[in-house]
């Protein structure tokens, strides 16, 4: 995976940095694994705007990705590596020995023609999914379950991975991409490797129009609003705006917002810095 920089022949290409798509091997997705994705424009079921700065964008179909990897002991061959408009990572189309097709998150280094497996007793190789109890300590993993059988919930975005640090009784200790260290049941599954598209964080749109294609509308700063619209608005001239906070008054820039009485707090060993 690499990124492309463009010559500044137009204002839109001056700062444009995008991926090369070298690893992508198919243009059209598998039809049987597509679902309709309705565009909301940030509105809820009553038509009220509940999320700002969303709207427009190109039409997209949702790719049904298998986050559970519950087809144990059946070998699957990687048929294609594809682009997914709904996520930052690439996805891989795999075909099982019994003919079933499925999409999975493609780990970095997964090749077309490679065979992958899931379940207990599987070798801890890139692309294989197995319980945390059987993964060697120090291994980089992604697609981690929080509860056995729930399906992957952690370390799913491009270039992200967690590290298995230790095992104590029925719990494994993992260090998450955020820097947080927490305990997860050893019966939970994870996939070996790092999520693909590792240089996604280097990409830049280059122009406002490309953001609009992705469905992002212009974002207004709170300090340029009136006091009736934002706690940081108002003032004569270019006023700084006071303490950084959200539109609803919640302090930003360092205030802890996690509920200390949350049930899962007992599984967190150290919080992210």
What does this structure look like?
The chain has one domain (3-201, 263-270): Beta Barrel (OB fold (Dihydrolipoamide Acetyltransferase, E2P)). Helix content is 4%, strand content 25%. It contains 2 helices and 17 strands. It has helices spanning 11-14, 208-213, and strands at residues 3-5, 17-19, 34-36, 61-63, 76-82, 91-96, 101-105, 115-116, 129-131, 140-142, 144-145, 152-154, 162-168, 171-175, 181-185, 189-192, 268-270. The strands form 5 sheets. The chain has a 7-stranded antiparallel sheet with strand order 9-16-10-13-14-15-17, with no helix packed on it. A 4-stranded antiparallel sheet has the order 7-6-5-8, with no helix packed on it. A two-stranded antiparallel sheet has the order 1-2. The longest helix has 6 residues, at 208-213.
Question: What are its keywords?
Answer:
OB fold (Dihydrolipoamide Acetyltransferase, E2P), mainly beta, 17 strands, globular, 4% helix
Tell me the name of the CATH homologous superfamily: Nucleic acid-binding proteins
Mean pLDDT: 95
CATH names the topology as OB fold (Dihydrolipoamide Acetyltransferase, E2P)
Percent of residues in helices comes to: under 10%
Q: Could you give the order of the helices and strands?
A: EHEEEEEEEEEEEEEEEHE
Biggest sheet, strands in spatial order?
A: 9-16-10-13-14-15-17
Low-confidence stretches: none
The figure for the number of domains is 1
Tally of helical segments: 2
Biggest β-sheet, characterized?
Answer: 7 strands, antiparallel
Which architecture does the CATH hierarchy give at level 2? Beta Barrel
What is the subunit organization of this protein? single chain
Q: What would you call the shape?
A: globular
Helix and strand composition category: mainly beta
Q: What distance separates the N and C termini?
A: 29 Å
CATH class: Mainly Beta
- Please give the radius of gyration in angstroms: 22 Å
| Strands, count | 17
Strand content: 15-25%
């Amino acid at each position: 995976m690499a990124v492309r920089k463009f010559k500044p022949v137009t204002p839109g290409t001056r700062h444009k940095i995008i991926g090369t798509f070298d690893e992508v091997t198919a243009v059209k997705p598998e039809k049987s694994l597509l679902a309709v994705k309705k565009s909301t424009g940030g509105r809820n079921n009553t038509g009220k705007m509940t999320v700002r700065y969303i709207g427009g964008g190109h039409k997209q179909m949702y790719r049904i990705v298998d986050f559970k990897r519950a087809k144990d002991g059946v070998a699957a061959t990687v048929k294609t590596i594809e682009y997914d408009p709904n996520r930052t990572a690439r996805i891989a189309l795999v075909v099982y020995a019994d003919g079933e097709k499925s999409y999975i998150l493609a780990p970095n280094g997964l090749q077309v023609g490679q065979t992958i497996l899931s379940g207990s007793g599987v070798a801890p190789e890139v692309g294989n999914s197995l319980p945390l109890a059987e993964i060697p300590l120090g291994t980089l993993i992604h697609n981690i379950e929080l509860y056995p059988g729930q399906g992957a919930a952690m370390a799913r975005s491009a270039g992200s991975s967690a590290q298995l640090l230790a095992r104590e009784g029925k719990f494994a200790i993992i260090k998450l991409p955020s820097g947080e260290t927490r305990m997860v049941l050893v019966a939970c599954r994870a996939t070996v490797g790092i999520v693909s598209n590792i240089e996604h964080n280097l990409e830049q749109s280059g122009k406002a129009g490309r953001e609009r294609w992705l469905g992002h509308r212009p974002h207004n700063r709170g300090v340029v609003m009136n006091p009736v619209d934002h706690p940081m608005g108002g003032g004569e001239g270019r006023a700084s705006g006071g303490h950084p906070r959200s539109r609803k008054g919640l302090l930003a820039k360092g205030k802890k917002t996690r509920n200390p009485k949350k049930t899962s707090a007992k599984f967190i060993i150290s919080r992210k810095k």
